Amino acid sequence: MDNYTKKWADGPFKLLSTPRASLEGKPESLASRNASEMALVHNILLRGLNSIYLQAPNVKETNDIADFVKFCDAWSSILHSHHAAEETVYFKLLDEQSSQDGVFIANHIEHEKFLPGLLAFDLELIDAFGTDLESHLHHEISVLEDLGRDDSIDWEQCGKAMAQFSKKNSDRVWLIDHESLASTDILIDFHHFLGLWV
């Protein structure tokens, strides 16, 4: 088995299937595209979490510990940044535009549920929040898919606003220091869609 087909960090926290994968070549709506892109970002977060979970027991050498702590810090920083973008821009825009009242209240509550554990992780352990985070990352995609029936949402505006917020709030030095995390959690050939992240 070559490096591109091995499953390196697919568990214990389950990865998402992109909504795009279920279309089987049918045209994709903007809601599905947004949900698929969010699923890909969530899979980077889940792969990072799985990598940390699986590697932690094996890190014993002093120089490995320093590298591992840096990897954990990079993962935590990316999750904090993603959470801030969702809470500050993405959910807010979707809530304002949706004809459904309070569609993201449950997601906000889920964020609040795993944040104390994430803050504890910044100091200590994944087990304090991993299951809540996994559940939230999966649930958010189904909420986005369900909003596909809501014609009042400007999906392009929401996607652009999320991207602009992320770019505006990312620190270039931080990105250079942390880019290896995202690149290690990308798998090119998932769902037979060449070039999609999972």
TrEMBL record:
Q: Per its UniProt record, what InterPro entries does this chain match?
A: Dimeric_xanthone_biosynth, Hemerythrin-like
Q: Which residues form the Hemerythrin-like domain?
A: 38-143
Pfam families, per database record = Hemerythrin (PF01814)
Name the coiled-coil region(s): none
According to its UniProt entry, this protein's organism is Monilinia laxa
Q: What is the protein's name according to its record?
A: Hemerythrin-like domain-containing protein
Q: From what superkingdom does this record's organism come?
A: Eukaryota
